[in-house]
Design a protein that fits this description.
With about 375 residues, the chain is an alpha+beta fold. The protein has 3 domains: about 140 residues, Schlafen, AAA domain (Methyltransferase, Cobalt-precorrin-4 Transmethylase, Domain 2), CATH 3.30.950; about 55 residues, no CATH class; about 170 residues, Heat Shock Protein 90 (2-Layer Sandwich), CATH 3.30.565.60. It contains 12 helices and 16 strands. It has a 6-stranded mixed β-sheet, covered by helices on one side. The longest helix is centred in the middle third of the chain and has 15 residues. It starts with a helix and ends in an 8-residue tail after the last strand.
Length: about 375
């Protein structure tokens, strides 16, 4: 861009591809502007031009470029590549930040917000617009998107080999490992780990997705306002989180031994298959675009599993109760869970839970949805009741 083009841009004013800043804004505002252009059609952020069109220039150019580069890499997710350039406007240096239309849309700021450019302004994108961005970038499913900051070495390759051997009965040659990783969508064709890959096979998944955990708590009462007497963050690979959740539940759920014939039989307060189904469903179907964790509460009268996000697409509580729909929000994660025998691929998980609790306890599972989460409530048996 040269002096004449800058002058022409000033005369035309801000538009879909142009935004002026008199001085360098704070980090969040800067990230918002960069994300806006990358999510829309690309453009230029021009710094050193006042709102009235006066050329004021940039004083500390090197510091400004360093700050912008840091924001583009560390405060935009995925990181965004930018190209800075300068133009001398009769002694005042104007800084132009060229922001291309992103190849890994949608982008968001570190605060978890998605922005798009609309005319001459930047605004937060609606969820429908975010979904369209996934579609136009040919990555409709969020669990298949690459985690840009995660190197291939962040995957636990020994665990992946174990997965292949135990669950797929495959002992591949070393030269074929990456092919299996890509075919299972654990990595992209550019060898970047996907969200599903990091969550299922990462050495330390929470280093890249901190909220991808289950917050478990035992509450000695019936109301969430009561402080928990025990709390634990269940982290690690998804299979480890599932096992950890079941172990935490067993700490506070009753078991009863009965002698039948000459053998002792163990009766659980709540069938383990119901508990496991509830945990697995939360992990498989949660909305990973929301920076919130699954919450597992053990109350005196019930177990609650609170899953971030609203129900996907056409799914309703009524259709879940009769196994009348099977819509996958995270198909790669679901496929991996299917491979290890945690899901059935029929969409009948909630229906089976309802049926089991009704048959064994003669109680009802409650399902509820709010603006931010789906709540599964599993009733417990009273303390004085026989199991």
């Amino acid at each position: 861009m040269d002096k004449l083009e800058i002058q022409e841009r000033i005369l035309k004013g801000e538009n879909l591809h142009t935004e002026f800043k008199e001085s360098l804004p704070d980090n969040e505002t800067l990230a918002k502007s960069i994300v806006c252009f990358a999510n829309t059609d690309g453009g230029q952020l021009i710094i050193g031009i006042s709102n009235s069109g006066d050329i004021v220039g940039v004083e500390d150019l090197d510091e400004a470029v360093r700050k912008i580069d840091d924001v583009a890499f560390n405060r935009c997710e995925p990181p965004i590549s930018i190209l800075p350039e300068t133009v001398d406007m009769d002694g005042e240096i104007v800084l132009i930040i060229n922001i291309p239309k992103g190849e890994q849309r949608p982008y968001r700021t570190k605060s978890g917000k998605y922005y798009i450019r609309s005319g001459n302004r930047c605004r937060q994108a609606s969820w429908q617009e975010v979904r369209r961005l996934y579609q136009t970038s040919e990555s409709i499913y969020y669990d298949e998107t690459p985690i840009s900051k995660a190197p291939l070495g962040s995957l636990d390759m020994d665990y992946f080999r174990y997965f292949l051997e135990k669950h797929l009965d495959i002992s591949p040659e070393e030269s074929l490992i990456e092919s299996y990783l890509e075919n299972l969508k654990v990595i992209t064709h550019n060898k970047k780990p996907t969200l599903a890959g990091i969550l299922f096979f990462g050495d330390n998944p929470q280093a890249f997705i901190p909220f991808a955990k289950i917050i478990a708590a035992y509450i000695p009462g019936k109301d969430i306002s009561i402080p928990p007497s025990d709390r634990k963050d269940l982290e690690g690979k998804i299979p480890y989180i599932i096992d950890g959740s079941i172990k935490f539940l067993k700490l506070y759920l009753r078991e009863e031994h009965r002698i039948k014939g000459f053998e002792s039989e163990l009766y659980h307060e709540i069938p383990e298959e119901v508990l496991r189904e509830g945990i697995v469903n939360a992990i498989a179907h949660r909305d990973y675009t929301i920076n919130a964790s699954i919450r597992l509460f053990i109350f005196e009268d019930r177990i609650e599993i609170r899953t971030p996000g609203r129900l996907p697409n056409t799914v309703t509580i009524e259709s879940m109760k009769i196994a009348g729909c099977h819509v996958l929000r995270n198909p790669t994660l679901y496929n991996l869970l299917y491979k290890i025998g945690m899901v059935t691929d029929t969409g009948s998980g909630v229906y089976r839970m309802i049926k089991t609790i009704k048959e064994k306890l003669n109680r009802e599972i409650k399902l509820n949805t709010t603006e931010t989460e789906f709540i599964l409530s599993i009733p417990r048996t009273p303390e004085d009741a026989n199991l």
